[in-house]
Specification:
37% helix; 4-stranded antiparallel sheet
């Protein structure tokens, strides 16, 4: 049980030796008599990082020629290496070597056994997703029965909306955050339209305001939820925003929403594998996620689903719902959600959903994608799960922030908050003033291109923002040092 050991209070235990992460890094640099911005300090941090050995579990993209890195770069074999500095795990995680091994084993069992692979031990395809459920449940703070591995994020979100968005005339609005990921918005709008509402009126975007402290965000969401308490049926939240990297105070928002009878659904695309989640304890109604970002399952990897056990029989029915369905069918049903014992009898019996999240499965499991994800989740489990990874992540991203502050460059500003409790791995950095009218449009793209020529991979979003996300499972402190060093040389040019 990861759930008991990782109670949300553990965020406070992250105070390293009783210090704020910034003080902790400063203290270490004093102790070692190494300047905080020196490459040897980066190397020293890597030397004492107990998770550094997991880096070798991953394939790093390599450069075709030796990178045009910097003259005063630190010596050592890692600067000779042709590995790129990969800080893009918030977009697509690197390939775990085991993912490849697992996929090859699955391909072989198909090649050698044909249809028998459905039942051949040790990994029969019939139940190939089951070993992943406890591993996944650990990462999101859920019971294994509350999670399923299936489809992709947007598909799962539609399935959940069919089950949980039960609008009635006076209570039919869907609340989303104002800079939500576009797919979440399209899903909300199309679901409202599906029920016959004008989506322009039914979908309400909540602006989180400018105060990004925990107190500020809690206050803002409390006010906004109160405003919509009579009219909102459901709220869809991205736990960590994809643009600015802000991590919402989910526990608080869920409590307040539930006090008004509003269903809460979460999109964990940028949160899973990045921050510890406590979905069962927080009583989120449902959550969906993809697995190709921080979970490193590969492009278009299989998605995840959480349905709180309190809904394990059927989704909740609001009084006088306009949707008069048999409770069994308040979902889109498919054979793989049907009870295993009678699934293959193929008669005309009634649909009997498996209790919990598995009852929402539609089709048989995509074996290759699932095995790829399993290879990655095994690495997470060996690293000790989200506790140790989050500890390292806080220091790694704080170190990135401190190095950027050291540059003291007026052209760089942080969009993500400085409060480590309200962010994950990602920092979004605006180059220039971030004003789309006056800043040259190409500025941040140009920087991205120049960094890439020097062997650094980050990505950009509109508003001249660079998104930089050091992943604690495979990124090093030296990666972060090199990025800042190379960014400086690019900007000075």
């Amino acid at each position: 049980g990861g759930m008991d050991t990782n109670s949300p209070a553990s965020e406070e235990l992250l105070l390293y030796d009783g210090k704020h992460p910034k003080e902790y890094l400063q203290h270490l640099s004093d102790q070692l008599s190494l300047s905080l911005s020196s490459p040897s300090f980066a190397q020293a941090l890597d030397d004492q990082d107990s998770l550094s050995l997991f880096r070798q579990e991953f394939h790093f993209p390599t450069l075709t020629e030796k990178p045009s890195r910097v003259e005063d770069a630190p010596t050592g074999n890692w600067i000779e290496a042709k590995e790129v500095v990969y800080l893009c795990g918030n977009s697509l995680g690197l390939q775990p070597k085991r993912a490849k091994e697992r996929v090859i084993v699955a391909l072989n069992s198909w090649g050698e056994g044909g249809v028998h692979g459905h039942f051949t031990q040790p990994n029969p395809w019939l139940t190939i997703d089951e070993p992943l459920l406890p591993l996944m449940a650990d990462l999101v703070g859920a019971l294994p029965e509350e999670v399923a591995v299936m489809n992709t994020l947007s598909t799962n979100l539609h399935l959940m909306m069919i089950a949980f968005y039960q609008p009635k005339a006076e209570r039919h609005k869907i609340l989303i955050e104002h800079n939500a990921f576009p797919s979440d918005r399209y899903i909300a709008e199309s679901q409202a339209a599906l029920h016959g509402y004008d989506y322009k009126d039914a979908v309400v975007a909540i602006n989180p305001g400018d105060d990004l402290t925990t107190e500020g965000l809690c206050e803002r969401w409390t006010q906004e939820l109160a405003k919509h308490r009579e009219t909102a049926a459901i709220i869809l939240l991205g736990a960590v925003n994809y643009q600015n990297g802000i991590y919402l105070p989910l526990e608080h928002i869920i409590k307040v929403a539930h006090s008004y009878g509003i269903i809460v659904g979460l999109d964990l695309a940028h949160a899973v594998g990045n921050l510890p989640m406590f979905l069962h304890q927080w009583e989120a109604d449902f959550a969906v996620w993809c697995s190709y970002k921080y979970l490193n399952s590969g492009p278009g990897g299989v998605g995840g689903l959480f349905v709180h056990w309190k809904h394990s029989g059927d989704p909740p029915v609001p009084q006088s719902s306009s949707v008069l369905l048999d409770p069994k069918y308040r979902r889109l049903a498919g054979w793989w959600g049907h009870d295993l014992l009678t699934r293959f009898q193929m008669g005309d019996g009634l649909f009997t959903p498996i209790p919990g999240a598995m009852g929402y499965r539609l089709s048989n499991t995509p074996v290759l994608l699932t095995e790829s994800l399993r290879g990655s989740l095994e690495v997470f489990a060996e690293a000790g799960g989200m506790g140790p990874l989050r500890r390292k992540s806080v220091v790694l991203t704080t170190y990135l922030e401190m190095l950027l502050q050291h540059l003291n460059d007026p052209q760089l500003s942080l969009v993500t908050t400085s409060d480590y409790r309200r962010r994950g791995a990602q920092l979004s950095i605006v180059v220039g003033r971030g004003d789309l009218e006056t800043d040259p449009k190409y500025l941040v793209k140009e920087i991205e291109r120049k960094l890439e020529r020097r062997g650094v991979i980050v990505d950009t979003r509109r508003g001249n923002a660079l998104r930089v996300a050091p992943a604690p499972l495979y990124n090093s402190f030296v990666d972060v040092w090199l990025f800042v060093h190379l960014l400086k040389s690019v900007i000075n040019q």
